[in-house]
Amino acid sequence: MGFGRRIGDRLRVSGSGARRSLIVLVVLAVLAASGSAVALTGPILVHRLGLSQTDETVLPSSPLPMLQPLQGDAPRPTAAGVAAVLDGAAEALPGKFTGIVVDPATGQTIWQHTPEVTLTPGSTGKLLTAAAALLTFNPTDRFVTRVVQGPQPGTVVLVGGGDPTLTTLPPGQESVYPDAPRMSDLAAAVKKAVPGPITQVLVDTSRYQGPTMAEGWDPADVAAGFITPIEPLMVDGGRINPKLTEGPRVPDPAMAAGRALAQDLGVDSSDVAEGTAAAGAKSVAAVRSAPVAVLVEQMLRDSDNVLAEIFSREIAIARHGAPTFAGGVQQTAAALAQAGFDPTGAVMHDGSGLSTEDLVPARLLGQLLSAAAAPAIGPDDTEFLRPIITGLPVAGADGTLAGRFGRTGVSGPGRGVVRAKTGTLTAVASLAGVVSDTDGRLLVFVLMSNGVSPATMRPKLDAMAAQLSRCGCR
Q1: At residue 139, what are phi and psi to the nearest 5 degrees?
Q2: Strand partners, 428
Q3: What are the CA-CA distances from residue 316 to residues 41, 88, 410 (Å)?
C-alpha cells in the first residue's frame, strides 16, 4: 500500500525565550497530572505542497482560557460529549481516516472513528520505536563509539557502536543533537594513547547487517536530507552541515566518519578504508552519546529518522535479534507485546515511519501514548515511558509543530496546549499526542489520514485537536 513520494515532517524554527517558557509550562502541566516529575535530561517541497499555509477561517474574538496545571480530579469527558465535538469533523474529512481519543487516567477509549482501519502512519510510527527503546534500555544508557588498535603498527580501527550524534564541530559550537560527543575529543584521546605516528584508519561497521536502505524508501531522500544509509557509525546523523536539521546527507556515513577522524589525526583521506576490529583488540579511546531518554525526546521533537532507525537496530541487538531492518521491527513488536501492548495490525518496514509501506492502527498509538501519560501509581508502572510525552513537539512552539497552530486560525486554541507527534508523507497526514481540555483533564488523541494531500489535511487535523482543548466534553 503506497502513496508515492514522501516529504519531510520537520518545519523547524528558532524558539524565543517566551516560547521556551511556554514549553516548560506545558511540560510541568503534563507531569502535574501524573503526580510525579521525571528529571530527564526540502523547504522547496514544503512550499510546493503548500504546507506553510495558514488556517483559512478566523477565530471569533472570544478570550482563550489561560494555561493552567492539570487537575487530577478534573471531571471526566463523556463519550457523547467528545462525539458531539469530533463526529461531524471526522465524517466530513476526505480520503481514509481513523481516530481515537483515550482518557489516560482510566485507560478508557471515549471516542473512535473507523477503528478497524489500519493506515500508513508516517512519522507517528516513531512512537512504536520510542516506546520499545524505553522498554529495552535504561534511560541513562549511552551509545559508545570506540577506537581500538589495528592489525598493523600505526593503524587504528574506528568501531561503530550505534551513536549517530558524534559531531565534527569543535568545542563551543553545538550540533543539532544535545550534548553530542566530539570527534576532536576522540582524536585527542587516540593521539595520547597511541605511541608513534598513526598512518591508517580502518572503519568497522560490522555491528549492523543487511541493506542500509529500507523497503519503501527513495534514494533521493538522502540528498533531500530526510535519511542517510543506516550504519552503526556516522557523524552528525550523516548531515553535511552539522548545524542544519533539514540539510542534505552523505551517501556513505561510516566512511565520512572515518575521514573525519583521519583529518583530526593528520592521516591522509586515501588511507581510510573499511575493516573489522580483531576480537579482543585493545581499546584506545571512546566517547559516549547523550542518555537514551534524551535521544528519544530529540527523535520525537525533530522527527529524526536516523535516530529512529538506529534505535530500531539497537533494540534488536539488545533483545538478541538480527541487527537488520526486519530484525528491528520484529524486536520492536516483541518488546511492545511483552510489555502488554497489542501490536496486532501493525506492519512496519522500518523504525522511522519513512516507508510508504508501513501500516499501524490508531488503537496501538493510543495505547502507547495513554501508558506514557498515565498517572504514576507505583514503582512498577509505566512512568519510565514519560520521555514520550516530554519529547512531543508543542503546538506553535517547537519541533515539527513550530509552524503549525497559528494564532488566528481555527487551530489557534490548541497553541501551547496540544503536544503531538506529527506524521507526513505525500498522501499521509497524522497527528498523535495529548491535549488538556478546559476542565484541566489530559486526553490522548490519535488522528490519521491517508489518500489526501497533507496540505489539505494537516489544518483539519490540527483543528480537531484544538477543538478538544476548548471542550469539557460532558
Answers
A1: -60, -20
A2: 425, 450
A3: 25, 43, 43
Average pLDDT over residues 125-141: 97
Q: How confident is residue 409, by pLDDT bands cut at 50, 70 and 90?
A: confident
pLDDT digits (tens, 9 = 90+) for 26-68: 433 433 333 333 333 333 222 323 333 333 333 333 334 444 5
Q: For residue 387, how many other CB atoms are within 10 A of its CB?
A: 27
Positions marked catalytic: 123, 126, 303
d(CA 118, CA 136): 26
- 90-103 per-position pLDDT tens digit: 999 999 999 999 99
Q: List C-alpha distances in Å: 338 to 110, 148, 226, 341.
A: 26, 37, 31, 7
Query: What are the CA-CA distances from residue 326 to residues 120, 162, 179, 333, 420 (Å)?
Result: 18, 17, 30, 11, 27
How far is Cα 156 from Cα 308, in angstroms, rounded to an integer?
Answer: 29
Residue 297: φ, ψ to 5°: -60, -45
* CA 411 vs CA 147, 185, 396, 428: distances in Å: 51, 46, 10, 19
22/151: higher pLDDT = 151
SS3 294: helix
Per DSSP, helices labelled H in 93-200 are: 126-136, 183-193
- Confidence label for 15 from pLDDT (cuts 50, 70 and 90): very low
Q: Say if strands 144-149 and 283-288 run parallel, antiparallel, or are unpaired.
A: antiparallel
CA separation, residue 250 to residues 213, 241, 256, 388, 452 (Å):
13, 10, 8, 29, 31
**Entry pTM:** 0.86
Q: How far apart are CA 114 and CA 133, in angstroms?
A: 29
pLDDT for 378 equals: 57
CA–CA separation, 266 vs 360, rounded Å? 49
At which residue does the C-alpha cell 551509545 appear? Answer: 143
Model confidence pLDDT, tens digit, residues 349-404: 999 999 999 999 999 999 999 999 998 765 555 578 999 999 999 999 999 999 99
Place of cell 560490522: 206
How many whole angstroms separate alpha carbon 412 and alpha carbon 466? 7
Supply φ then ψ for residue 109, to 5 degrees: -80, 125
- What angle, 0 to 180 degrees and rounded to 10, lies between the N-to-C axes of helices 454-469 and 79-92? 160
* pLDDT on residue 473: 84
For residue 435, list its beta bridge partners: 418, 443
Three cell numbers written together for 455: 496540505
CA 234 from centre of chain:
18
